[in-house]
Amino acid sequence: MSIEHRLNHIAGQLRGNGEVLLNSVDAHTGAPLPFAFHQATGDEVEAAVLAAEAAYPAYRATGPAQRAAFLEAIANELDALGDDFIQHVMQETALPQARIRGERARTSNQLRLFAEVVRRGDFYAARIDRALPQRAPLPRPDLRQYRIGVGPVAVFGASNFPLAFSTAGGDTASALAAGCPVVFKAHSGHMLTAAHVAAAIDRAVASSGVPAGVFNMIYGAGVGEALVKHPAIQAVGFTGSLRGGRALCDMAAARPQPIPVFAEMSSINPVIVLPQALQVRGEQVASELAASVVLGCGQFCTNPGLVVGIKSPQFEHFVQTLTAHMADQGPQTMLNAGTLRSYQTGVQHLLAHPGVQHLAGQPQTGQQAQPQLFKADVSLLLNGDPLLQEEVFGPTTVVVEVADARAL
């Protein structure tokens, strides 16, 4: 299917027949882009899953050479996407061109890596135990086993990696490599990006001769539950928030036939700053930590959300240096309006907490996220305060000072 068929240039939110349209949005301005996408209905979710289920037997039976060639064809189609693709991703995500080109290379390289694994064949873990008819006290029959794809897989796109962990990202690539058709739920923050990549996959499907239902994509809110609960779906791939991932895990576990959820969820990524490190390179640690907090507007899964150190004059100086570095950081545009709203809410919760002190950062205004630094009383950690157990997804971190090594 061509990108022209994937993209819908119809303005407005409703068609004459009442069909809901979802607009792609410019991450820099919040203004709607001239592209709209269909909110999937229950019937469309059903159709996408049934198409994947129908494609499964034939796709699972493809040989290593054909399946590997299919993965490489997707990689080639991704690499061939032109400047319009780059510009659209930049508009939707506010990510710089160099980051997008680098992430595209990572995505296509992942696909080629899985193609190598498929050709090698050891992932099948084939095993043959030959029959032993004369074995005492009982003969052993001929036993043969190998791994096969489990069936259609539901994949949810990640917001912070619109290519490498999204439409043709690692979850999709691994499912297709294993012989599993994919039903992909496009992330609302980069639907136009997803449409470009889905069109590239469609072209690879057509040129590789694999079944047409091997990849299907749906848009919209409220479709995830129907997707995960559908009896034809046999596994789920998810990258995102702890709350969202746990909800999917609960749905998958409550099914009459429970299925696995392969989820990478959020983390506060605590960093421990030891006295020896402060003595040797305290200034460097403060500088690099500030850079890590604001890297990509704090939208990486490795963003350090908690910094813990032992009370001392050196640690006090370290916090002062870190405060100065954080105060120098400018605002950045986040991936989408939803991410910005979530970040602002997290910052407000920290500002309002009586046990938290604000050390650096400007008030949140406009379309950009202001970096922030906080210091929390150690009692919040010792008492398991939920505030310090929740990730604030963005350019913010919280310092905690403990009394001694035992407290640490």
| Class of secondary structure makeup | alpha/beta
Oligomer: single chain
Distance between the termini: 57 Å
Q: Using only CA atoms, what is the Rg? A: 25 Å
The topology string of helices and strands comes to: HEEHHHHEEEHEHEHEHEEHEHEHEEEHE
Count of DSSP-assigned helices: 13
Question: What would your notes on this structure say?
Answer:
- The protein is of the alpha/beta class and 408 residues long.
- It is 43% helix and 17% strand.
- A five-stranded parallel β-sheet has the order 7-6-5-8-9, with helices on both faces.
- A hairpin with a 6-residue loop joins strand 1 and strand 2.
- Helix 3 runs antiparallel to helix 5 and helix 4 runs antiparallel to helix 7.
- The N terminus is likely disordered.
Note the main attributes of this structure.
408 residues; alpha/beta; 5-stranded parallel β-sheet; 5-stranded mixed β-sheet
Task: Give a nutshell description of this structure.
With 408 residues, the chain is α/β, with parallel strands linked by helices. The chain is 43% helix and 17% strand.
Give me the secondary-structure topology.
Blueprint: H1 3-6, E1 21-25, E2 32-38, H2 42-60, H3 64-80, H4 83-93, H5 97-120, E3 127-129, E4 143-145, E5 153-156, H6 170-178, E6 182-185, H7 191-208, E7 215-218, H8 224-229, E8 235-239, H9 242-254, E9 261-264, E10 270-273, H10 275-294, E11 306-310, H11 313-327, E12 332-333, H12 337-352, E13 356-360, E14 368-369, E15 372-376, H13 378-382, E16 396-402
Parallel strand pairs: 5-6, 5-8, 6-7, 8-9, 10-11, 11-16, 15-16
Antiparallel strand pairs: 1-2, 3-4, 12-14, 13-15
Helix pairs in contact: 3-5, 3-7, 4-7, 5-6, 10-11
